[in-house]
Amino acid sequence: MEKDWVLVYSIGKLYRAELLKEILTENEIVCDIINKKGSAFPFGDVEVYVHKKDEAKSLELIKQFNA
After folding, report:
1. Are 49 and 32 in contact (CB under 8 A)?
2. Are 57 and 15 in contact (CB under 8 A)?
3. Which of 16, 26, 34, 51 has the smallest number of CB atoms closer than 10 Å to its CB?
4. What is the pLDDT along the chain (67 residues), one digit of tens a residue?
5. Which pairs from 11-19 meet CB under 8 Å and 24+ separation?
6. What is the CA 5 to chain-centroid distance, rounded?
7. Could you give the 3-state DSSP secondary structure of residue 17?
8. Strand, helix or coil at 56?
9. Domain count of the fold of the chain
10. pTM recorded for the entire structure
11. What CATH number did the domain enclosing 62 receive?
């Protein structure tokens, strides 16, 4: 990840991260997902990153997403 990206969400379920990515994209926030789960074992998290400038807006959308 480049230095201007920040982690805004981490979860064990890929589908939840994908849903969040859709919401962020619909709100004109560029984001990226990094899947840190192992292929052989279901351990690890899926992380969602956004540009630093979009962090505050992203966190507000995440609050609504988790409500």
Report:
1. yes
2. no
3. 26
4. 668 999 999 998 899 999 999 999 999 999 999 988 766 666 789 999 999 999 999 999 999 999 8
5. 11/45, 11/46, 12/37, 12/42, 12/44, 12/45, 12/46, 13/46, 14/46, 16/46, 17/46, 17/47, 17/48, 19/65
6. 11
7. helix
8. helix
9. 1
10. 0.87
11. 3.30.70.1530
